[in-house]
DUF4250 domain-containing protein
Amino acid sequence: MSLENFETMDTFILLSMVNMKLRDEFGDLDSLVTFYDIDKTKLVEKLAKAGFEYLAEAKQFR
């Protein structure tokens, strides 16, 4: 499953995928959104609506 269609994904599946990719494949959120060519603001807003925020020092959404 790819992140290009993140806007229509279930929020909890998206959260899991993003955190896994941040942990295993990318050094930070900017690298992830650049690789998948997705809008960082929209991604952060979608996860924020579910109560999650990006913690740069932890490299994950919580």
Notes: The chain has one domain: 6-51. The helical segments are 11-24, 29-36, 40-49. The mean pLDDT is 96. The two ends are 21 Å apart (CA to CA).
